[in-house]
Amino acid sequence: MSKGLKFLIGFFMMFTALNTSSSMSAEDLYDLSFNSIDGSQIYLSDFKDKTIVIVNTASFCGFTRQFSGLQNIWEKYKKDGLVVIGIPSNDFNQEAKTNAEVKEFCEINFDVDFVLSETSNVRGQNAHPLFKFLFNNLGPRSVPKWNFYKYIIDKHGVPVNYYSSVTGPESEKFIIAIENELYS
C-alpha cells in the first residue's frame, strides 16, 4: 500500500471518529432541560416540531435593545410554531446579579414574555449543555464572542445556523432564515 493511500485511509478514519464522537443528534437536544428564570423546569422536548431561536442575552449590553426585536418576532411567528428562548448570561460581565433582577428588567423595559432561562454560562468548560450541543453541531466559530448571538434550530431539533450580535432579530436575512424553517 502506498504512503499516499495509507495517509488518506488514516485521515478518513480520524475524520470519521471525530465526527461521530463530537456531534450530537437531535434526540440529544430533546434530552436537554434547564431552569426557567422563575425556577421551573424547561424541557426542550416540549418544543419538538417547532422552530427554535436560542439567544444569549444580557441586560446591560449595547445590543440589549434586541429584546424588542426578539419579542416582536415571537409575537408575530409563535402561532406558526416559533419558540424564542433567551439565555441570560454574565459571561461578558453585563448581566444583573440575580434572576429576579433580570426578569424584572426584561419585563419592565421590553415587555418580554418569551421563554427566559436562569442565568447560565454560554461559553467555556462551564457552558450549559445546550450551548455545547450548539457548538458541537455548528462548529467552534459559533461560540458567542459577545451577547445576543442567535441560533436557529429546525423542527427536527437540528441547529441550522447562527448569527452574531450585529445581526438584529428583525433583519431581513434573519427573518428569511426563520421563515425558511417555519414554512418548509
Rounded to the nearest angstrom, the distance between the terminal CA atoms is 48 Å
Question: How many alpha or pi helices?
Answer: 6
In the CATH hierarchy, the architecture is 3-Layer(aba) Sandwich
Kindly report the CATH topology.
Glutaredoxin
- Global geometry: globular
> Tell me about the biggest sheet?
5 strands, mixed
Residues in helices, as a percent range: 25-40%
How many separate domains make up the residues? 1
Radius of gyration: 18 Å
**SSE series:** HHEEEHEHEHEEH
Total strand count, please?
7
Please write the CATH class name. Alpha Beta
CATH superfamily: Glutaredoxin
Structural notes for this entry:
Helices cover 38% and strands 17% of the residues. With 184 residues, it is an alpha/beta fold. The strands form two sheets. It has a five-stranded mixed sheet, with helices on both faces. A hairpin with a 5-residue loop joins strand 6 and strand 7.
